[in-house]
Amino acid sequence: MGMHAILRRFYLPKEKIDREAVITGDELHYLRDVLRLKIGDKIEITNGVGHLYHGFLSSIGKTRALVRIEKRIFTSPPKVKIYLCPAFLKTKAMDLIIQKATELGTWGLYVCLTDYTVPILKNKEKKIMRWKKIAISALKQSGNNYLPQIGIMSFKEAISKAKGLKLIAIGPREGKATPVISYLNSSSREIWICIGPEGGFTDEEIWWAKQNRFIPVSLSPYILRSETAAVAVLSIVHAYYNCH
């Protein structure tokens, strides 16, 4: 039995897709100069809001390529929407969180400024654009069709914005907490998870979170790096809701 050919996947915002899709910019460079695709080659396109399109290349030029759309598929959003609120970290750690959170189907990513946030945050819009590019790459690689919302806000803003099941991950040095798996349940429709910086949360931040009905949870008996904690908690939550 022959194997199905794997279609190359591209990302385009929905306004660039109708009966035809117009590919420009970085995606055009990848299609034409890296993959060296030809007219007639079949590809698939995700618009990041649940729609997947199958089509073939009808023209390839210097500034754009056109794709004739043959099939449209809608993928339902996840039953449980996960919002991750990691503290702002150094570049490599932050990039890893954005990538893995997108691969694991996170609905929203709100990077928080906490008391122990070390880097000085400048050029917020440029950072968000960079993170969005990383998320788009992860979206295409993973087969996920929902691009997470990405933003930057203060820790208190994130705490106030949260709804549904609210969790704040704390390490063994920050106090006692119950393992996160104990609080997951099939009735939840939104889960907000806060992850602290390398120095952890301050006592005041943990108090503020508790006042807003956040539950302190543990991920491990060991001290985890922030990026490890983010991937660990998302993996636990993702696995739980895929089985329930």
Walk me through the topology:
Blueprint: E1 8-11, E2 20-23, H1 25-34, E3 42-46, E4 51-60, E5 65-74, E6 81-86, H2 91-103, E7 108-113, H3 124-142, E8 149-154, H4 155-161, E9 165-169, E10 178-179, E11 190-195, H5 203-211, E12 215-218, H6 226-242
Parallel strand pairs: 1-3, 6-7, 6-11, 7-8, 9-11, 9-12, 10-12
Antiparallel strand pairs: 2-5, 3-4, 4-5
Helix pairs in contact: 2-3, 2-6
Number of helices: 6
How far the N terminus sits from the C terminus, by CA atoms, comes to 33 Å
Order of strands across the main sheet: 8-7-6-11-9-12-10
Order of helices and strands: EEHEEEEHEHEHEEEHEH
What value does the Rg take, in angstroms? 20 Å
At the first level of CATH, what is the class of the largest domain? Alpha Beta
Strand content: 25-35%
Keywords:
Ribosomal Protein L25, Chain P; 2 domains; 12 strands; 244 residues; alpha/beta; 28% strand; five-stranded mixed β-sheet; seven-stranded parallel β-sheet; Alpha/beta knot
Summarize the structure.
By secondary structure, the protein is α/β, with parallel strands linked by helices. The protein has helices at residues 25-34, 91-103, 124-142, 155-161, 203-211, 226-242, and strands spanning 8-11, 20-23, 42-46, 51-60, 65-74, 81-86, 108-113, 149-154, 165-169, 178-179, 190-195, 215-218.
Give a written overview of the molecule:
There is one protein chain. This protein has 244 residues and is α/β, with parallel strands linked by helices. The longest helix has 19 residues, at 124-142. The protein has six helices and twelve strands. It is 31% helix and 28% strand. The mean pLDDT is 92.
